[in-house]
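Regression test attached.
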Amino acid sequence: MEDDRARKYFSCNDRERAAFEAGIKLGTIYHQFVGAPVSLRNVESLEKAIEEGCRVQPFVESCTVKISREKIREKRNEYNYTTLSPSMLDVELIIRYREVRLKARLKWVEELRYPLMFIEEVFEGTRRIDGD
Amino acid sequence: MEDDRARKYFSCNDRERAAFEAGIKLGTIYHQFVGAPVSLRNVESLEKAIEEGCRVQPFVESCTVKISREKIREKRNEYNYTTLSPSMLDVELIIRYREVRLKARLKWVEELRYPLMFIEEVFEGTRRIDGD
Amino acid sequence: MEDDRARKYFSCNDRERAAFEAGIKLGTIYHQFVGAPVSLRNVESLEKAIEEGCRVQPFVESCTVKISREKIREKRNEYNYTTLSPSMLDVELIIRYREVRLKARLKWVEELRYPLMFIEEVFEGTRRIDGD
Amino acid sequence: MEDDRARKYFSCNDRERAAFEAGIKLGTIYHQFVGAPVSLRNVESLEKAIEEGCRVQPFVESCTVKISREKIREKRNEYNYTTLSPSMLDVELIIRYREVRLKARLKWVEELRYPLMFIEEVFEGTRRIDGD
C-alpha cells in the first residue's frame, strides 16, 4: 500500500497525515452508513461490512465497529427495525502511516450530545498500539 | 409484520402498494450504499449487509444482491479498491403485500446507460414466484 | 422525458408504475440525505437541494420538502448543529406517469414512531392534483 | 464555536487536530453526497448545499465546492441526468483550529485514477490563508 505518487500532493508531516487519514475514515463511516436499515437480525452483518469497508482503505491497520443493541431496541418501531443513528455507533480505528500509528475513535458523548470523533493516541516507532 | 395502523394512510390498491414498497427498497439500496468502499476483499460482506438490511424492512420476502467483480477490477486504483458505483449493482427483490407478490430488479442497462429499476412480475394469489 | 426504450423492461400497469416511481424517489431522498449536517443556517439550502435533486429524476411533476426547524433546535448540540434525521422530514411528491398522477408523502407518524412513506392519491386523466 | 468540554478527549497537538478535522469534513462530503441525482438544472443548488452543510460543522473557515459540468454532460443518460460521482468533485476547505489554519482539497487525480483528499498547507499564526 504505497503512495509515492500521491505523496507529492501533501504538505504536512507524517503525524498530520495520519490524523488526516483517520478523520477521512471516520467521516466515511458516519456519512456512508448512518440511515441504513438495522435491527437485531442484521446488526452483525452491518458491523462487519462497515469494518471490512474501512479496512480496504489505505493506511488502516485495524477497525472495530460496535452498534448498540440497546439503542436498537429502544428505537424499534411498528415494523420492528430502525435506521442506524449516530448515537448507536462506537468505532475504534488504528491508522498506520509510515512510522506513525494513531488511534482514533467515534463514539456518542452524552455530555456533549454529540457523536464525537477524536484522537486517542499518536506515536512514532515500531511498537504496536494496544500493548505488543 | 402487520401494518393495520399504517394502512389508513394509504389510498391505493394492494398491487400499487406492493409496487410502491418495491420502489422504496430499491431507492434505499442505491442511495444508502453507492459510494461505499469496495474491493475484492470486502465485496462479499458488503453484498450480505445490503441483502440483510433490505430484508429487515417491511414486506420484503427475499433480496439478492450481486456486485460485479469484473467492474471492481476495472475501476481499481492506486490504492487497490474503489467505491461502489451504480453500474456494479444487480439486485433482485420480491415484495409480498397481503395477497400480492411482486418481483423487482435493479440492474445496469447498457442501452440506456442507466441503472434501471423495474418491475418484472406482479401477481396475486398464494403461488410463490420462482416456481413453487 | 420519454422512456420508450425502458418500457419493455416493465410488467405492470401505469398506476403500478407510478407507485413504483414514487417509492424510488422517497427512498432516494431518505437514504441520500439523512445524516447530512444541518442547522438553522443551512436548512433552506438543504431543502432546496433535496427538492431540485428530486425534480431532475424522471416522472416527477413536483416535490416539496420541509425540514422541521423545531426539531433542529431540539437536537442542537455543543457545536450548534445536528445531522438530518428521519423525523425532521416532510416531503410531498407528485409523480406523473403517462395519464396517471400520484401523490405521495414522507412524514414522521408519531403513533407508529416511524417516518412513513405513503400514497395519498392516485388517479388517471388530465386533471392536475391540487385543484387545477 | 468552543470545544473546551470536548478537548479533554483528544491526545494530539493543534496541527494534528486541524488535519483530523479536515479529513472528517472531506470524508463527510464524499460519502454523504456521492450518489445524489444531478444534472445541469440542479448542479448549483447541490454545490451550495454541500458548501453550506460543510460550513455549519465545527472549525470550518471556508468551503468551496465545484461540480464538473463537463462530466455531468458526459455521463448524461436516457433520462437526462446522472448521479454525483467522485470524479466530478473539486472541494477546497480551510479549517481553523485555534492558532492553526489548514487548507485541504478533494479532487480527482487522473494519474492515480483516484479522488485524492490532501493537505495543501498548514501554518500557525494570525495570517489568513490566500494572502490577507
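Expected vs. actual: identical. The first strand of chain A starts at residue 37 and ends at 38.
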